[in-house]
Design a protein that fits this description.
Length: 398
């Protein structure tokens, strides 16, 4: 049995099954499909069947949406950051030229975009996706990182031509620095979170993430509906996008939705228990680096305030246990490369399924059909090898 235990768990007192007014554009998923599916190298990410783990946990199915190779960036993030870069640039060109839906590949567009700068704050993967998008569309990029971001992650961002600026403090401090600098310099900021002062770009980021579940719904079209969804929370972008897309598809029969966070930076746990956004202060660093966030995104709040049913928190000790399990066991046909943040949702499922009280409250059993996202692969190859004992290529037998 996999040894992962819960730190805290709670039911969301505000949970509801009535679809709220979503903070996304009605045609948004169509725009995402048209844009992202047109990029070179696009293909739906695999939906893997973790049948051995499902048997071990005595649940029906575990569907594992594997984002570990998406566009060569090894995470789901290009669906958000790079897509948002395209939308920000398109809106700018439309305002300058009066042409709706301008062709970003035209010579005129490329010439104008070369003088523009996009910026973002990141703990790794979002900044890499924004830098990738900036290079794709030919504009300058400056990425702010918090001091805890590894050199490997900084190098991966810089590889796409971005300038890296290090900010003392947390991810939330880097977010504020990116926003203030963008205002001073006249840059376009592409945040994956929102305090309410910027709406369009973080909404674009979040809406781009919906493509993951859109793909999964197509991959599962001949299967019974998903009953449970375990989602790593962070600021809430990926979680709200995933919850919203399932809600749109299933209506009031949406899956039971569980948010998973590191215990020391459980901003969604604290906020949903309090009934309003609450900032978590102090040391919020975590081995699950992509979830080391102290403040929820206000773009995500309207979705998850009623769309999340439970919140669970984990100790960082879950990281090596789950990463090694997937590298050794994986699916029926191959091992799975999953990074420190990538394993979080699955680790939350394992912990909940082994807690008798919580298992009963969540209705986990042999009929359960559970959806989980592997949100990243070896985005920091050195850290991955140090934890697993093998490189990603060695794990998958290359």
């Amino acid at each position: 049995m996999i040894d992962i235990s819960l730190e805290r768990a709670a039911r969301n007192p505000m949970a509801d099954r009535v679809l709220p007014a979503l903070p996304f554009k009605k045609d948004g998923i169509d725009v995402v499909r048209k844009t992202v599916c047109g990029w070179a190298g696009y293909e739906p990410s695999p939906l893997r069947d973790l049948s051995d783990l499902a048997s071990e946990l005595n649940v029906g199915k575990i569907y594992f949406k594997d984002e570990s190779t998406r566009f060569g960036l090894n995470s789901f993030k290009p669906l958000g950051g790079a897509f948002a870069v395209s939308r920000v640039l398109a809106r700018y060109l439309a305002s300058e030229t009066g042409v709706d839906n301008p062709d970003l590949s035209s010579g005129m567009a490329r010439e104008r975009m070369a003088s523009l700068t996009v910026t973002a704050a990141t703990d790794g993967n979002h900044g890499r996706s924004v830098a990738w998008g900036a290079r794709k569309y030919g504009c300058r990029c400056v990425i702010f990182v918090c001091a805890s971001v590894s050199q490997q992650r900084k190098n991966a961002i810089a590889a796409y031509g971005a300038e890296i600026r290090v900010v003392d403090g947390s991810f939330d401090d880097a977010v504020r620095k990116a926003a203030s600098t963008a205002l001073e310099e006249g840059w376009f900021v592409i945040p994956d979170t929102s305090d309410g002062s910027i709406i369009d770009a973080p909404r674009d980021v979040t809406q781009g993430y919906m493509l993951m579940v859109d793909e999964a719904l197509e991959q599962l079209k001949d299967e019974p509906p998903v009953s449970h969804v375990f989602l790593q929370a962070g600021v809430g972008g990926m979680a709200s996008a995933s919850a919203a897309r399932f809600w749109q598809a299933y209506g009031e029969k949406r899956p039971l939705t569980i948010l998973v966070e590191p215990n020391q930076c459980a901003c969604w746990y604290e906020s949903l228990v309090a009934g309003e956004p609450v900032a978590v202060t102090g040391d919020v660093d975590s081995a699950m680096a992509g979830l080391a966030c102290g403040e929820v995104s206000l773009i995500a709040w309207p979705v998850l305030a009623t769309g999340a049913d439970f919140m669970v928190t984990l100790n960082d000790n879950a990281v090596p246990v789950m990463m090694r399990y997937l590298a050794e066991q994986g699916t029926d046909d191959r091992p799975v490369v999953a990074g420190e943040t990538g394993i979080s949702g699955l680790a939350g499922l394992v912990a909940a399924a082994q807690d008798n009280s919580l298992r009963k409250q969540m209705g986990l059993g042999p009929e359960s059909r559970i959806f989980v996202i592997n949100s990243e692969g070896d985005t920091d190859p050195e850290a991955y090898k140090a934890i697993v004992g093998k490189s990603a290529n060695e794990v998958i037998g290359r």
